Amino acid sequence: MERRSLLRAAVIGAGAAAFSGSLWRQAAAYPALPGTSPYGALQSADANGIMLPAGFTSRVIARSSQTVPGTSYTWHGAPDGGECFADGTGWIYVSNAELGSGAGGASAVKFNSSASVTGAYRILGGTSRNCAGGSTPWNTWLSCEEVSTGFVYETDPWGVNAAVQRPAMGRFNHEAAASDPVRKVIYLTEDASDGCFYRFVPTTWGDLSSGTLQVLKEVSGVLSWANVPDPDGSPTPTRDQVSGAKLFNGGEGCWYRNNICYFTTKGDSRVWAYNAANNTIAIVYDDNVTGAPLTGVDNITASAAVGDLYVAEDGGNMEICIITPDDIVAPFLRITGQSSSEITGPAFNPAGNRLYFSSQRGTSGSSSGGITYEVTGPFRTSL
């Protein structure tokens, strides 16, 4: 029997196999298996080198080291994690810069209601290896440093308020963040082969200046949250401070919706689902099956309308794959001619009809050659 078939019956943590139904309905016959995409087969590559389903089109929004068209702002190198924010009838796309030695940070592109670019600007600078992050319910962007004692920075997508360092959220090899307004916590992933899954409990919801960092632990199959004694991660890394902490192989993107935080681990190419209501964890996707289309899992986002997950590849064959609520995984798009890059920052605009993402190193394979794209088309609004 294939490992995936075994996983369908396995209990991962406390009662994980109890999940049933769709991803958003908190019920899935996890893990997802290869199948036919609801959008059909990929067509030949377009002028931008992107293979898309019929009816979809792409355009280039920005290129690293070049001025964003329609503005005077030079786009940052190595574009990584991203998110969209509503801005009146328009929206803003925020993108991190995964550059080291203080050259990182984050930038933003502003769009009007017709999707024309109306501005671009920096919202964070002087930081290192800003990889992924996450939005908050109060419309800030959490930009996370992927270094051994990295910080989380809370930034203003409009660029009006100065970015603020949030040391209470812990110092470790940060990757992504996802806000849970029900439990009033923020989940955090750690990009290390023996990394952990954390949550930050603010003293006051909406204020990240103080609070408690906790780590998920598992003892005899029972999951629980334990306080991290020393969130600054020195001299002992946060992941080594709590006995029984549950380890994950290279935490990457995470996304919260309806009591479930979905997150990815690149070391074993898995997508996980932590059900906060039931305190259980399950494997949504594992690439150890014949014909698995998704490898090198990385950033993750979702369609708000129907609950489709979109997972970007770091490597693989440069695809963004879709995982549907009926547990089908299939390619949604593929970037050709950029095998030395990775796909980063997938995010939908507020209407859910435009998907933004980047190729971090573009055709050149260099951080100065990043390309940020937009895909438009008939994204489904119902199952």
Structure described in brief:
The protein is 2% helix and 44% strand. The chain has 383 residues and is mainly β.
Based on the model shown, name its key terms:
1 helix; five-stranded antiparallel β-sheet; globular; mainly beta; 383 residues
Topology summary:
Layout: H1 3-9, E1 33-34, E2 50-51, E3 57-63, E4 79-87, E5 90-97, E6 105-111, E7 117-125, E8 130-135, E9 141-145, E10 152-155, E11 164-165, E12 174-180, E13 185-190, E14 197-204, E15 207-219, E16 222-227, E17 251-257, E18 260-265, E19 270-275, E20 280-286, E21 297-302, E22 309-313, E23 319-323, E24 328-335, E25 343-348, E26 354-359, E27 371-376
Parallel strand pairs: 1-24
Antiparallel strand pairs: 2-24, 3-27, 4-5, 5-6, 6-7, 8-9, 9-10, 10-11, 12-13, 13-14, 14-15, 15-16, 17-18, 18-19, 19-20, 21-22, 22-23, 23-24, 25-26, 26-27
Question: How would you characterize this protein structure?
Answer:
The protein is an all-beta fold and 383 residues long. The protein has 1 helix and 27 strands. The protein has one helix at 3-9, and strands at 33-34, 50-51, 57-63, 79-87, 90-97, 105-111, 117-125, 130-135, 141-145, 152-155, 164-165, 174-180, 185-190, 197-204, 207-219, 222-227, 251-257, 260-265, 270-275, 280-286, 297-302, 309-313, 319-323, 328-335, 343-348, 354-359, 371-376. Strands 1, 2, 21, 22, 23 and 24 form a 6-stranded mixed beta sheet that branches. It has a 5-stranded antiparallel beta sheet with strand order 12-13-14-15-16, with no helix packed on it. The longest helix has 7 residues, at 3-9. It is globular, with a radius of gyration of 19 Å. The model is unreliable at 1-28 (pLDDT under 50).
